[in-house]
Design brief:
By secondary structure, the protein is of the alpha+beta class. The protein has 21 helices and 26 strands. The chain is globular and about 65 Å long. Bound molecules: adenosine-5'-diphosphate (ADP) and D-xylulose. D-xylulose binds next to helix 14 and strand 20. Belongs to the FGGY kinase family.
Length: 540
């Protein structure tokens, strides 16, 4: 379908925490058009802050109709930018992982009868039983996590089967909470989608299946057999299997685009929709990670991921099905306090400017004279704690640093050390040939990247195109629709067509690396102390 048809495009979408991004790639997988909708700025009527609404008790949600309205807006913008959508041969996309969308009884009729004379958000206004979807930042479901682990005997057993011990943001505990606290809503829900499959559903005008990779972020999939895990489904809520539908292989062609898009936007009726996936698996597809390489995404969350041969989950991090090779897996660890924490420290210490923030990073001493700061604005995933903790060079807890701007370096250094420590626990080993591929909003900040390079003692690269998640989803569409070379591996195919390059951004500084080598164990002690302090404050 796609080979040698240089006039054909693929459309790719990334429904992330703060925005919806769209890119159109041409037949050589080069970016032709792009647009985005920033939720807070362009859809202020939904009153989100950074794309979400934070409620009390660690509840974090996003209005599902805001996402639908963003799609209306983004497609209009794309067409207005001159993109001829009739040339789009295939569509794939990705979305923030773990969040769930609840479709009301009979919503499938609404989906299959979309009126091209109306906006999607008008036609789908009554399609959802829950108007606010829980998202990955939510950590209100500890009770349901414990119940799920207990039903398996213990957390290890759940992790061995589903790739992760029970996590608050994972879909199983989120669905269990809806069933327990809003049984009426659960009852009138005919389908539960992940955010990725929700978006794909709109494009095919019917319920889209959840794919293996995003499905492995639910605590509900048996990741080795790539089937729903009956024991987990039963432990969560009755009738769940029917509400989730079938799970499909990544790169499955789900069907043709719905007539709505043909009539309203001029898409070709032959345009195919490929199963959507999570943003981190899509990013892995966009990056082509080799042995000894680790990817770091500095988006709203900081995530580390790498390709794995073994699919046995442990108590730390997550093992997911690999999106582009069904014989492989991927390891992932996610930290909630990423960009938003960096931004808060920046605003506190220097105001709006990243340049001023970077000046401090560039003019202060590596290692911060031994002062360490840990910042968990939101309850962190690993370790599960909240608050700010500052330590003097002897490891004593202090309330503030000798100079307030020391928070800038302390924040970036502790985030970088945390990335290294946890990626090693995930399977990454630093060595001669190790390197880091960087992506996400903060990857444009070379002062931050230099610290990461020094902490990892490894060079930092990026791709010559930004937005690796959106790009990866575009590659997935092109690969799924290829006409020839049935057995060619994903990355061989992509590299052959795109000829894309990596750009070296930073190389490690030997003196700084030595300082950080010594700081790693000190950091570990401080993290343990902070953990103890947090829990001692919780228990009277
Ligand atoms: P998402 O998780 O929504 O995909 P992005 O990957 O687009 O988010 O990252 C958005 C974040 O990037 C913002 O919250 C902002 O803090 C951060 N960012 C943007 N530019 C810079 C910069 N120059 N330095 C550090 N962080 C930046
Ligand atoms: C990964 C995670 C986040 C979201 C948002 O486990 O929770 O990275 O996918 O990007």
């Amino acid at each position: 379908m796609f080979d040698n048809m240089f006039e054909k495009y693929v459309l790719s979408l990334d429904l992330s925490t703060q925005q919806l991004k769209l890119i159109v790639l041409d037949g050589q997988l080069k970016q032709k058009y792009s647009t985005k909708v920033e939720f807070d700025l362009e859809l202020p009527e939904f009153r989100t802050k950074r794309g979400v609404i934070r409620k009390c008790n660690d509840v974090v949600v996003a209005p599902v109709l805001m996402w639908v309205k963003a799609l209306d807006l983004a497609l209009d913008k794309l067409r207005a930018s001159g993109c001829d959508l009739s040339l789009v041969a295939g569509i794939c996309g990705c979305a923030q992982q773990h969040g769930s969308v609840y479709w009301k009884n009979n919503a499938s009729d609404l989906l299959s009868n979309l009126d091209p004379g109306r906006f999607l958000h008008a036609d789908l206004a009554t399609a959802f039983s829950l108007m606010e979807s829980p998202v990955w930042m939510d950590s209100s479901t500890s009770l349901y996590c414990r119940k799920l682990e207990d039903s398996f005997g213990n957390s290890e057993k759940l992790a061995q089967t589903t790739g992760s011990r029970a996590y608050e943001r994972f879909t199983a505990s989120q669905i269990a909470k809806v069933y327990d606290t809003k049984p009426g809503i659960y009852q009138i829900t005919e389908r539960i989608s992940l955010i990725s499959s929700f978006l794909a559903s709109i494009f095919i005008g019917g319920y889209a299946s959840i794919d293996h990779s995003d499905g492995s972020g639910m605590n509900l999939l048996d990741i080795k057999n790539r089937k729903w895990c009956g024991e987990a489904l039963e432990a969560v809520a009755p009738g769940l299997k029917e509400k989730l539908g079938e799970v499909v292989e990544n790169l499955t062609v789900l069907g043709q685009i719905a007539p709505y898009f043909v009539q309203r936007y001029g898409f070709n009726p032959e345009c195919k929709v490929v199963s959507f996936t999570g943003d981190n698996p899509a990013s892995l597809a966009g990056m082509n990670l080799g042995a000894g390489e680790v990817a770091i995404s500095l988006g709203t969350s900081d995530t580390v991921f790498l390709s794995l041969e073994e699919g046995t989950g442990g108590l730390l991090g997550h093992v997911l099905c690999n999106p582009v090779d069904s014989s492989l897996f991927m390891g992932l660890i996610c930290f909630k306090n990423g960009s938003l924490t960096r931004e808060r420290i920046k605003n506190l210490c220097v105001g709006e400017s990243w340049d001023k923030f970077n000046q401090i990073l560039e003019t202060t001493d590596v290692g911060n004279y031994g002062y360490i700061g840990l910042y968990y604005d939101l309850t962190e995933i690993t370790p599960h704690i909240q608050g700010e903790y500052r330590f003097d060079p002897d490891g004593n807890l202090i309330s503030k640093f000798p100079a307030p701007e020391m928070d800038v370096r302390a924040c970036i250094e502790s985030q970088a050390i945390r990335l290294r420590l946890y990626s090693e626990r995930l399977g990454y080993s630093s060595g001669h040939s190790s390197s880091i591929l960087i992506t996400g909003g903060a990857s444009s900040n070379t002062a931050i990247l230099q610290i990461i390079s020094n902490v990892f003692n490894a060079p930092v690269y990026t791709l010559d195109l930004p937005d690796s998640a959106c790009l990866g989803a575009g590659y997935m569409a092109a690969y799924a629709l290829r006409q020839s070379d049935e057995r060619i591996p994903f990355y061989d195919y992509i590299n052959q067509i795109s000829g894309r390059k990596r750009c070296l951004l930073c190389t490690p500084d030997e003196t700084a690396c030595k300082v950080y080598m010594q700081l790693v164990s000190k950091y570990r002690d401080c993290e343990n102390k902070a953990f103890g302090i947090y829990y001692s404050r919780l228990t009277p």
